[in-house]
Design brief:
Helices cover 69% and strands 0% of the residues. With 228 residues, it is mainly alpha-helical.
């Protein structure tokens, strides 16, 4: 947890949610994405699955990726039973099987094209919600780079590498963001040095040179490369 995050000026709900994500202590963008995706799944389980219009759009306007379709039933089990999941899964399965049966009824090039089309599915509705929340968070972090209190905190956030690159892209070379970018790259340079030091000092004659910082490097790198 960043000890200065609670002191940040918070002008609206976006700032409030960003501060809450910062206080979790990991990559703030990963936290924003996870919160939005969790809220999207809860909305499906609690309300949307009962909406006829929502079910009509399944596999036509939107879908669920493999990861999030599994999380639906897990989320529902934590709060109730599996009624919504059963309805949702049944609707998806019926729609996809209808496409497969229709495809198998065709011949030649038409069949090959339909099989190829059947493998191309609409975007995941949960991933879409997560991506939208991330875009808002990235733009707000860039906007807050003109506030020195925010600059000090953003510079210390342990962003994963993918989200750091996305943040740098959102900044588009803004002068106010340069100190944050430099500090973040220094953090990753230090991590690279510690990983090399661990490998170098793993030899029996150099193990006495190993430090706790070296030993922690691989776990930190897993979060930098894999996200929180």
């Amino acid at each position: 947890m960043n000890q200065h995050s609670a002191e940040l000026p918070q002008r609206d709900l976006v700032d409030v949610r960003l501060v809450a994500a910062i206080e979790l202590g990991g990559c703030v963008i990963c936290a924003v994405r996870a919160r939005a995706e969790s809220a999207a799944i809860e909305a499906v389980v609690d309300e949307r699955v009962m909406d006829i219009g929502f079910r009509a759009g399944l596999e036509r306007s939107f879908a669920f990726c493999r990861r999030h379709i599994v999380e639906v039933v897990a989320a529902e089990r934590r709060s109730s039973g599996i009624l919504s999941s059963s309805i949702l899964y049944g609707a998806i399965l019926a729609r996809r099987l209808a496409i497969v049966r229709e495809t198998l009824g065709s011949r030649g090039r038409g069949r090959r094209k339909r099989l190829a089309d059947a493998r191309t599915r609409p975007a995941c509705v949960v991933c879409t919600e997560g991506a939208a929340a991330v875009d808002v968070a990235l733009q707000r972090l860039v906007a807050r780079s003109t506030d020195q209190a925010w600059v000090a905190v953003i510079g210390e956030i342990p962003f994963c590498l993918d989200d750091l690159v996305a943040l740098l892209a959102a900044a588009e070379g803004a002068v106010s963001f340069a100190p944050i970018a430099e500090h973040q790259l220094s953090r990753l340079d230090d991590l690279e040095r510690r990983l090399d030091a661990y490998a170098h000092n793993s030899a029996p004659e150099r193990r006495h040179l190993m430090t706790d910082d070296h030993r922690r490097a691989a776990d930190e790198a897993s979060r930098v490369l894999g996200g929180d």
